[in-house]
Amino acid sequence: MECALGVAATQFPSYFRLKSHEFRLSTVKCQSVSLSASQNSPTGLAERPWKVADARLVLEDGSVWRAKSFGASGTQVGEVVFNTSLTGYQEILTDPSYAGQFVLMTNPHIGNTGVNFDDEESRQCFLAGLVIRSLSISTSNWRCTQTLEDYLASRNIMGIYDVDTRAITRRLREDGSLFGVLSTEESKTDEELLKMSRTWDIVGVDLISDVSCKAPYEWVDKTNSEWDFNFNRRNEETFQVVAYDFGIKHNILRRLASSGCKITVVPSTWPASETLKMKPDGVLFSNGPGDPSAVPYAVETVKELIGKVPVFGICMGHQLLGQALGGKTFKMKFGHHGGNHPVRNIRNGRVEISAQNHNYAVDPESLPEGVEVTHINLNDGSCAGLAYPQQKLMSLQYHPEASPGPHDSDLVFGDFVQLMKQEKQRL
Q1: Which biological processes are named by the entry's GO terms (predicted)?
Q2: What is the pTM of this model?
């Protein structure tokens, strides 16, 4: 028997003795093979039957993380944030609020349920890349229509795996969010990638314009009955709602429609005067990516609508309302990203487990008299909800539609409907 092990040829004896017992062994002949002689590899080396590290994540703090790539190839810059959700990676991938960011999943095993069309939260993937510990080699869900790897490749999104996501998460928690460069290009040195990470910035950049729709459209789809957790609002009065698309998620629209709303979605730059001409019963300011201070035009639109019609802000919409009321927003150390954040509703004392995705927050101390903080994040005490009854205003810093995430906060859509109903009765 011959074997190619890359070692010098050795002849083992056919017999040996041990404690007076004779054993017969077959002859094993090992022959050295020059790996550089392989003709199957462009590098001149024998191809391994497993994937090797072919990508790097270089962070602005100087650390270099070797990994294996999947999805698209190339070089991409982004802000690294970690998400603590245990499931729902496809909804995360299609959440426009992640534009300009690398999403690192703390759950180690990703990809086992594949992807499907029904779980899309927007028309495309807007994030810069996906960072995971372990990529599932198979899918095992009856709804799966495509693997995660093929899905990212078809959407030109980079991904890496076999990287220590726990160590990176600890670094982000200690040092705050970091900019980084993800690359599969061997021609670029670590120093070049580090320079790219240190010269790129996301603060003050308008990310909303790229994720918003370009023209108004009507939204009619309700939540599928098998996913609807609140049936008691069906067949009620219809309310006309204008929804500003700062990066809106489809499930927000579905939950509004299931609450009895007829919705017109408008671009982020849609004038307030045009909205008022539509005579809506209420206005929704949606979630979206980036720094609220980078979109002063949106703040001005919000200012012009406050007090004239009931309004509801979610995530970015909450931050824009805070600024429009005269308050200030600030960038958090590493933000809130995940489906397990505890929030207390101050009005009723109820604690909700919420889904969150934001890097900025409203400073409650900067808000004028009359504005009420209705919710607080129990992890860090930050402002998670506002109300201004005199101005017919309500907002949440987190995602009540929870895609992915728990449905504790779904009833807030009913609160918005009640706000519109009260205004109708008053008029």
Answers
A1: 'de novo' pyrimidine nucleobase biosynthetic process; glutamine metabolic process; L-arginine biosynthetic process; pyrimidine nucleotide biosynthetic process
A2: 0.87
